[in-house]
What does this fold into?
Amino acid sequence: MYQLPVGGIVKMQILGRLHGQRTRTTFNYMYQGDAAAADGATSIADALADLEAQILNPILQVTSEEWGCEFLVGQLVAPTRYRAVVLTSTAAGAVAGSACPSAVAAVIRRFSDRSGHRFQGRVYLPGVPVSYEDDSQLAAGVRASYDTIVDGMVTPLEGSDASEDYVPIVSTVAPVVLNADQVQGAVLDPTLRYQRRRELGVGE
It folds into this structure.
């Protein structure tokens, strides 16, 4: 058992599968509880459950049924790196019909108050339904469907109790300063982007 210190950096990922390819959507959080979490792994597991409710479930509503979630992964990466906490999942996209190729993703842009490239991040959402694509963009009629996801990008997660807050941040490069590095806003990019994928059968 390990403690999760105030100011600890936690990386969370949604790992899925589309057309035989691994998809990986990553989020970074800073733990800002009232005190250190006595059982860090349990707190992270509970925060992952909140990630599932707050972010994954809305993502499923705009994702093709061809995409399936396999794992939710959370790991304390700083100041000390510990073994990842893994929750299995069988959730799948809720939109009937085919998905765009596995490298194609919808993108949500996030930003903090600090300037510079590493303080402005992108979140890639795979499994874009073919029916959502219009001239390499998200069709105008479906863009509002992403609003709940965009809102979730700026909302803290909760650990084992209400005093255990995980605040979204963009950069994990030290030093990380809470108010300056916290995600202050997020917007949907209407243009579909390519996210690099590893080849089928060559690693994960």
About this structure: Residues 90 and 98 are 18 Å apart (CA to CA). Residues 198-203 have pLDDT under 50 and may be disordered.
